[in-house]
């Protein structure tokens, strides 16, 4: 690839391409006549010839920086998307990608498997939560950034990737896997007593379809209510937010309106006739990380009196971004804010958020347990404790004990007491664990985190997340609110 002191006409053409993508032709022509691009071209040439750096930048590097800078100061949601960012965005909205199906993260400073996704190449190969990834295709991960590791492991379906795994008590082992199409779980649902619980992670292409299937299952079982969990849902596709809301409203109700400078962005979206309407009582959980599309759904359901909103004030992101490819090969794009949206009662959301009907205490964790989690202590415990020779506390006993539906109350109590003693002894006898004085204050939290670590290791991340709902105090409070919620009339 040519260096910066090569001809820079391509830079000017690309800058003009960005303008062409977001301006009408007439406006672009007027801009080119009235505004000279000469200062920009001179600056690029100056940086290319004189900027002191140990890592020379290519024309592509400086081009990407120029385009990024052009958009960055508009607002915090407009953004230039280079090839990798654009590819990641397309995967997020499509809801699938090529890979092996593992969630990874940094544990004790090492690249680690958090959990394999059920039914994926990683799960079939036998990878487990807590495994350290030492090499990816022979490249050491010691100094590798997390997102770089993600991009190395992802790839076209049908291609291979080799991960060198370090597991406590075992020699290093290579796992060669064939990448497949991975569809992350976006909808998690389960039945809690006589209440249907469903969580939406984000709004991608199949969200409304998957949610409809879960709701039909709830309806068929004759449940008394639904908890819709939108906590920490960052948003996604506007169209999917409209379709999701449409599942809960009768025909002809305004869901959202959008307003922008372009008349094409001034729209109103209404609920439409459908095969059925889910009309059972609802509680919607939101928090300070619920944004964008999740605020469209929660705002509409609140305005129409269709659901009780519980939790914390939402994030307050009510701007609409349009994605427009800008390069000749359409491998790059600009994400540009083009409109704002409003609830059915024309409530302002942007930088304001949506206030819940019932404010719930924030979810908190003690400093000691947070430290244990950050240090990977519960991951280590899930690896070591079942293999520590305690007899009754083997892997199969843990699985049975954690899925306590088959245990009688008395047996469950004995199991819990015994498990608590084992966890306490392990933590008190490990460097970085807990002291006898600390234990009473962290006993309940520690036992929950250990159970989740075992579930994550044995059955994967999605099983652990479903299991965690049982211990979630906000979900319990939402269940209590359903008892007080009258069946909605659908009228406002």
Polypeptide structure, described:
The protein is of the alpha+beta class and 492 residues long. It has helices spanning 9-22, 25-34, 38-50, 59-72, 83-94, 121-125, 146-153, 207-220, 238-246, 293-303, 367-374, 377-384, 395-402, 409-428, 439-459, 461-468, 473-484, and strands spanning 79-81, 97-99, 102-107, 110-116, 132-136, 139-140, 160-166, 173-178, 180-182, 187-192, 195-200, 225-229, 254-259, 267-270, 282-286, 308-311, 319-325, 333-342, 358-359. Helix 15 packs across helix 16.
Widest beta sheet: strand line-up = 10-11-12-15-16-19
- What level of helicity do the residues show? 25-40%
The rounded Rg comes to 26 Å
Q: Supply the number of structural domains.
A: 4
Q: Please report the first level of CATH classification, the CATH class of the largest domain.
A: Alpha Beta
Helices and strands in order:
Blueprint: H1 9-22, H2 25-34, H3 38-50, H4 59-72, E1 79-81, H5 83-94, E2 97-99, E3 102-107, E4 110-116, H6 121-125, E5 132-136, E6 139-140, H7 146-153, E7 160-166, E8 173-178, E9 180-182, E10 187-192, E11 195-200, H8 207-220, E12 225-229, H9 238-246, E13 254-259, E14 267-270, E15 282-286, H10 293-303, E16 308-311, E17 319-325, E18 333-342, E19 358-359, H11 367-374, H12 377-384, H13 395-402, H14 409-428, H15 439-459, H16 461-468, H17 473-484
Parallel strand pairs: 11-12, 12-15, 15-16, 16-19
Antiparallel strand pairs: 1-18, 2-9, 3-4, 5-6, 5-7, 7-8, 10-11, 13-14, 13-18, 17-18
């Amino acid at each position: 690839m040519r260096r910066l002191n090569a001809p820079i006409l391509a830079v000017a053409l690309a800058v003009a391409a960005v303008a062409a993508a977001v301006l009408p032709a007439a406006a672009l022509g007027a801009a080119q006549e009235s505004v000279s691009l000469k200062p920009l071209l001179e600056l690029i040439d100056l940086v290319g010839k004189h900027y002191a750096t140990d890592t020379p930048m290519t024309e592509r590097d400086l081009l990407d920086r120029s385009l990024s800078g052009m958009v960055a100061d508009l607002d915090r949601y407009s953004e230039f998307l280079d090839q990798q960012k654009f590819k990641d965005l397309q995967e997020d909205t499509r809801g699938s990608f090529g890979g092996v199906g593992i969630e990874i993260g940094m544990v004790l400073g090492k690249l680690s498997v958090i959990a394999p996704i059920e039914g994926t190449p990683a799960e079939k190969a036998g990878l487990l939560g807590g495994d350290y990834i030492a090499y990816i295709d022979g490249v050491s991960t010691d100094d590798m950034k997390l997102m770089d590791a993600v991009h190395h492991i992802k790839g076209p379906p049908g291609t291979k990737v080799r991960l060198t795994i370090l597991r406590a008590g075992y020699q290093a082992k290579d796992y060669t896997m064939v990448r497949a199409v991975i569809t992350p779980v976006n909808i998690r649902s389960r039945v809690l007593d006589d209440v249907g619980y469903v969580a939406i992670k984000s709004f991608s292409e199949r969200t409304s379809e998957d949610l409809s299937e879960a709701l039909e299952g709830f309806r068929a079982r004759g449940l008394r209510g639904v908890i819709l969990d939108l906590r920490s849902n960052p948003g996604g596709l506007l169209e999917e937010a409209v379709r999701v809301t449409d599942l809960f409203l009768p025909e002809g109700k305004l869901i959202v309106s959008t307003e922008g400078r372009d008349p094409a962005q001034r729209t109103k979206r209404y609920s439409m006739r459908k095969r059925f309407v889910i009309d059972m009582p609802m509680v919607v959980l939101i928090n300070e990380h619920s944004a964008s599309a999740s605020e469209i759904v929660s705002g509409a359901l609140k305005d129409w009196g269709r659901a009780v909103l519980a939790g914390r004030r939402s994030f307050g992101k009510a701007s609409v971004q349009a994605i427009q490819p800008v390069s000749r090969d359409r491998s790059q794009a600009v994400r540009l804010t083009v409109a704002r949206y409003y609830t059915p009662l024309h409530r302002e959301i942007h930088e304001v958020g949506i206030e819940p009907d019932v404010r719930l205490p924030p979810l908190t964790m003690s400093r000691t347990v947070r430290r244990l989690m950050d240090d990977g202590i519960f991951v280590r415990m899930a690896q070591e404790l079942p293999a520590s020779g305690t007899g009754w506390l083997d892997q199969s006993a843990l699985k049975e004990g954690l899925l306590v539906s088959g245990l009688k109350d008395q047996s469950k109590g004995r199991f819990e007491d015994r498990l608590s003693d084992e966890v306490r002894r392990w933590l008190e006898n490990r460097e970085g664990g807990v002291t006898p004085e600390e234990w009473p204050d962290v006993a309940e939290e520690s036992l929950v985190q250990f159970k989740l670590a075992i579930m994550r290791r044995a059955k994967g991340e999605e099983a652990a997340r479903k299991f965690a709902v049982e211990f979630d105090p906000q979900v319990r409070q939402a269940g209590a609110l359903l008892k007080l919620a009258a069946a909605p009339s659908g009228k406002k």
